[in-house]
Amino acid sequence: MEEEWEKLDTALSKGKMAVVTGLRRYGKTSLMLTYLNESKKKYVYVDCRLLPSTVSLSSFLNLINSELYNLNWGKKILEKISSFELNVAGFGIKIRNKEEANLIKVLQELEGSVLVIDEAQALRNLPIKFDSILAYAYDSLDLKIVVSGSEVGLLYRFLKVDDPDAPLYGRAFNEVRIKPLSEQKAKQFLRAGFEQEKVSVNEGVINEAVQNLGGIIGWLTYFGYLYVTGERNTEKIYESAARLAAEELKKALKVFNVGEIRYIEALKIIATLGSASWSDIKRGIEAKLGKVNDAKISKILKNLMDSGFIIKSENEYRISDPVLAKGILKHV
What pTM did the predictor assign? Predict the structure, then answer.
C-alpha cells in the first residue's frame, strides 16, 4: 500500500484531516495503525464498532475515555478533565449538556496528537451534530483527525463535506481510498506472511487462495492464519470464510426490518448472475416476491451500495467481495 501510505502521510504532515475509505476487510485499520505506530505519532484510536446499537454521546465519550485509559499519556488527560475550565467562546459552537462539554474538553486536551475515528458512520444517528464538533476541532485546535469507514456512502452522508450548509463544507482534507490488492501483490502478501511464519507453502496453494479470495487483505490474512495454525484443507478455509461473511451480512440486513427479504433477493440475483442490471434485479425480485415499484428498487440498491455490499460499474451491479458472493449463494 505504498501509494495509500504516502497519501496518509501527506494528509497528516501537511493537512489537518484525512478520510480513509474502503470496503470491509480491505485493510483500512491495518494501514492507519501501522502508519501511526511506525511514524511514532501520538494518537488515540476510537473504534466505533464497539459502540452499542443505540449510539449516544455518552457511549461515544465512554469509548474515548476507555481508549485514553489504556495510554499512559491518556490517563493524565482523564485526570485533568474534571478540573479543566472549558472555553469555546467565539468559535460558533453551542454546548447544550455536560457530555458535550466533556467531549470538547477531551478534544482540547488532545491537541498535538492524532484522533482516529474508525467506522465513523456509526455516529450519524447521534442526537447532536457531530460534524459541528469536528469542524470546531478542525478550525480551532492543533489536532489532526482521521475519519474512516467501510460504509462509504453512509460515511460521506454523515460528514456532508459537499453540503454548503454543513459545518465541514469547504474544509480541505485528503481522501485515502483503499482498494483490493492486485493479483501480483496479493500473492506477494501471502508469500511474505508465510515466510515470516517460517511455513513452506506450495505456489499452487497461493495461486488458488488468491483466485478464491481476490486481493482483499482481510480474507488473505484469515486464510494465512488458519493455514499456519494447522488447517491445511483449503476448501474448509474458503467455506469458513463464506459462512462468516454470510452471517455478518444477515446481521447487517436486520436493520431493514420487513424489507429485509427484498434486500436478500436482490443480493441473490446479483450473486447468481455475477453482474446484473437494474432491470435484471427488478425482474428477479418481482418474479419471487411480486410487484415492487421502481423507487423501492432504486432505494434497495442505493442502500446496499452505501453499506458496501455491492458496487456499480457501467450500469451493472456486482457483489463487492468474492467471499461474500459465495456466502450469499450458499448460506443466505
Answer: 0.83
